Amino acid sequence: MAPAESARGDEELAAAAAAGDREALEELLGRHAPRVHRICRRIVADPGDALDATQEALLAVARRIDHFDGRCAFTTWLYRVATNAALDELRRRVRRAAPTAPETIHARSDDDPSRVVDHLDIRGALSALPEEFRVAVVLRDLGDLPYAEIAGILGVPVGTVRSRIARGRALLAQRLEPGNRPGLVARPTEHP
Amino acid sequence: MSDPGPFGPDTDEALSAELDGELAGFAAEIGMPEEEVRARLDAWPGARRRRAELARAADRVRRQEPGDRLDTLTLRRLARTAAAAGPRHRHPVGTWAAAAVAALLVAIGGFGAWAWLGNRPSGTGDTAVRTADPSGSRAGVHLGTVPDLDAFALAVAARTAGVADTPGSDPAPTAEEPAATEGAGTLADDGSPPTDIDGAQPVPAVIATCATSVPGRLVATARDATTARRAFVATTARGRLLVYVLAVPGCRILEVRSVAIGTAPGPGR
Fold first, then answer.
1. Is B243 left (phi over 0), alpha (psi -120 to 50) or beta?
2. pLDDT tens, B165-194?
3. What is the CATH number of the domain that holds A135?
């Protein structure tokens, strides 16, 4: 049976976890694991690698929870750790030069088939982005972080973040807009 | 786009920042009041279409996709595994040095034990138990008794590296190879009744059950003689092992280490 989630906030749980409260740590990690996984999925192309990155990120959070000093939001700190774990996984993948495993999408019966195609499109489009654009876009659009926090995570000026996000989105728009998708040919509307 | 917009190649940047409520920063950077930037964007005929394109791109990144979902059990196990690692408290350098020396010593002993156990003939009731992964795709090897987790990790890392250098030897039987059952239920190396917490349960079934609840591929298991707990290793990213120590009933993870294959586990990451 899943442990009941308390109403305690992230920072309170983090403080308790840093003091050795393992239940608090587990609750904190459980609360954010889906989001961490989604970030890793967007940054790392291979689903297996994304899962590894998720595990590494959560391990890093657990091991270093006593380093969280509360000067920023817990989620900001968490995303920094998750981003680093995902980027580390990308580096390892490059060193291994392993082929990307074919992706299996576990779609539910109520999933709209067009969304599954959309999913493949966004994965492909994101993978094609330069890494620095991809990470900035993911932290903004998935992490919902302000530019200043993204700048802090990436160690670059805010203006650079703004530029990377804009250029990343522009490239995504180019790839995702109907008629621009690779392999898709715009068909003229048929008139009777 | 033939018309680059009011800010030339930076028009996308302005529109994108506007979408995020960050237009003030853009305006400040070009030395223009935010209202004027906004007015120029609004006056541009292509603004509405371009805004919508950029917004759709952002929305697609944001949207939950089928492949994003992990089942609840997996997510819970990820969190539990990580929580088991706990905060890594810093220790004085001298403590680490002592720990490293101790780990090296026990590793040598552990590896010796493994080498001895690994070369014993099967079917003699010893603990050279091969555990089958219930997924059916992979299996692990039982390394016998090791004195502690570091020794266990090192033995697995050394074995993995050795196997990689020795074509033809295979410590991890495949699904096609039937899992050996010798020693099931009789866990003690010396033939004495098992005293650890999982009692007389067959090792393969117990460990295999736990192995399904953690990410990765079951590689090896061992008995932790010091603490009377079970340990096993699962691979995760290629080149990395996660070493789990389990309280077997309920598969509660007590401790986890992450080490790279072929390297000695250090005193924490």
1. beta
2. 333 332 332 222 222 222 222 222 332 323
3. 1.10.10.10
